[in-house]
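re: that complex we talked abt at group meeting.

here r the seqs, copy pasted straight from the sheet so there may be weird spacing, ignore it
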Amino acid sequence: MSELSNQNEMHQVPFRGGGFAPTARRGVGLAVFLLLIALTELGTQTGFITPLTLPKPSDVLKTFGELYSSGLLWQHLSVSLSRLLVGASLGASVGIAVGVMIGLFSYVRAGLLPLVAALFPIPKIALLPLFVIWFGIDEGSKYALIAFGTFTPTVVATYGAVDNVDRGLIRMGQSFNLSWWSIVRKIVLPGAMPGILSGLRISLAIAIILLVAAEMLGAEYGIGAYILEAGSLYDLERLFVGVAILSILGVTLSACIGMIERRLLRWRV
Amino acid sequence: MDIRLSGVSHFYQQTEVLRDISLEIPSGRIVCIVGPSGCGKSTLLRLIGGLERPSAGEIHQLGTPPTDCLNPLTYIFQDFALLPWRTVRGNVSLVLEDHGIRGKAAAEIIDDVLARTKLSDFAEALPKQLSGGMKQRVAIARALAVNPAVMLMDEPLSALDSQTRELLMDDLIALWSRTPFTAVYVTHNLAEAVRLGHSIVVMSRRPGQIREIVHLDTPLQQRGLGNAEMDEKQKYLWQLMRDEARAADAELIDV
Amino acid sequence: MISLNRRKALALMGGTIAAAGLSTPALSQGRKITVGALRFTSHSASFIALQRDYFKEAGLDVELKFFQASTPMAVAIASRDLDYAVTAMSGGLVSLADKGAVKIIGGALSEEAGIDGQKYLVSDAAFQAGVTSPAMLDGKKYGITSAGSSFHYMGSKLAQKEGITMSFKPLQKVGAIIGALKSGQIDAWSIVPHIAKPLAGSGKVHIIGNVSDYIPDYQVTTVFTSAKNAADERGMTGDFLAGFSRGVADYNATMIDHAHGDDGVAAMVDLIHKYVYADRPREKAAKSIINGTMRLNEGAALNIASLQDQLSWYQSEGLAKDSITLDTVVDASYVKTLG
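got the structure back, here u go
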């Protein structure tokens, strides 16, 4: 039938292959963000949005400016950052060590895996009062909470990453008579690095969440304490300033890990 | 250094994969092992290199390897097994570091083996930047760096396209001609076997047994494409293997 | 709608003819309202007014809603999920008032000289180390729920008066503060007597002073409502305060002045026990309830001077904007003012 149809007619073959391939569009995210802020400003200026619902973005910016110029921003930020740094690096380094051990030794795996599985779903915030008694109401309990919160996801990500290291590479190392330590250091750890780093991304986000929780108990300074105080005073401007600082902190940390990934994982296809 | 296998058998749980293999691998010769898929040739290679223990029988090294030999039994893998996070130079350096060879001494060895495998210009490249053929040349350079007494090659060219395979076979022949090395070369490709093997061990389907050992006397350099004698040998090998291969194929469906 | 309400109200009144004859005329005619409360004895006036039908006789159909803390209660008023509630004038309440959401309309609980009031407590560790009076708390850790809470105010006033400095540890919840005080993580705290006394009885904490010595006539808690109710629902608000005040009068007469003897006290304890310490046996609860007795403001009278002092303190601490005046926070037109 088709052979009988008009052969003189000529059509271009229709293109059907578009879409389904997201490409980078720079600045769109920022534009959406700015648009939302502009709409909020408009809404609050005209009174369409009551001051009880949302603060004026311009007031939030002004509050941030005041916080900055009073020097309190640095005071809050420095204690929070040091808590984050000490807690997260403690939790992540112990987590990586335990994760690697679980990945390498059958006995450690058999012994610790059920324990980690039992610890993972515990909301760490629930243990805060206990930590206060164990580690004191000052920095100790805050470090412990953040460390404990980052520990479990790091362990799970790390041993998964070690499990996923190409066995062929390990066999190659053995076939060249590399020592056990060399294989761990030069093959297992670099091979597990992508998994460990993506686990770290999650762990650090959890660390920021737990920072606020840790500062619930007995913190006079810190971004979390600042947010909680603003919340209890129903001071929306300060609340939003604090939340914005946390968001910026999260984006910055994520960007840092992205940079580390680009440096360390240059070899990835 | 020679390798001798006497009465080697191997089981995976209940499944017998190798039965009573006795074989001599003489120094300075390339022994090819061919057989249908699943006949246990790769297992045999792992047994020879000590990556697995045979269930029965013994494997001996006859004589001591030369003193400058860092790793007597050295593998070349089908999937190259290069560390993707190390450069070409770093991958070769990896196998020297554990022997305490660093700095200038290491650089000399690395430069030498990279020159022999024609990779000198790519020393700082990462594996992801290399073609399959180049990756396997890096693996060969790495193997050469430890000055092996016996090279254990597990289908080294199977992951490559046919042109690259031809080029690499030429490279291997050139390497052997310069300094003859001992090798056990496992392949399912009969053309490779007749190009590179001084003797070809034909194995039966599972449980793998030695069916016949075919000896080829033509020097490696003269076995180019279209050599009638080689075609003859290849045809003969195929006769030997065809029924086994068909049976092995059917067996896989049965399982 | 109106006729239905009227019929309903008439039916209700018919059922309580004797009581209705005594009560003030019902202006609101059986309007449904929700009142927020914490399960504390200081909220007894609401419980009494509900149980003894004082709200009903004032023409209001009251539903009690219980909360765990005062901040969510203030937010619930602001979002108009609640009509009336009783809580301390916290920084959060001032801020909500500034946003035009809530208004204080009456007083509830006051410190009064001669009547057992809130206590300053220290941990056993601090006590053993020689902290036996509030003046010795210099450099100590003082537990508060959050900045701008009534605990913060009480601690700060103490420090001010004694000329000492303390560090204030926000612990969010009363339970957390008690835990921290018992284990010696913090040194001092202040709390209502019905919590302070049993704690001191355990020996792990010690009472070292009275809040009333440092903050005389302290208006501890207030009655508050949404700004809209205060401005536009004067009839309903007046009715609520009338019902509430009868509850207050009953409470003060029975529990403090013993006008109805021990039987009266027992009956009132039974009533309160339905809401407070309901999970404990009556004998144990009775002790705590009687321990917790503090005078409520008769007629929901407001101590304006105390509120002004609190507001000024919030402002001096940067916890409230300087531009806020007491008029923004308080609508004093409903009740008698003191001070």
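couple things i noticed - The mean pLDDT of chain B is 86. The helical segments of chain B are 41-49, 88-97, 103-116, 132-145, 162-178, 190-196, 228-254.
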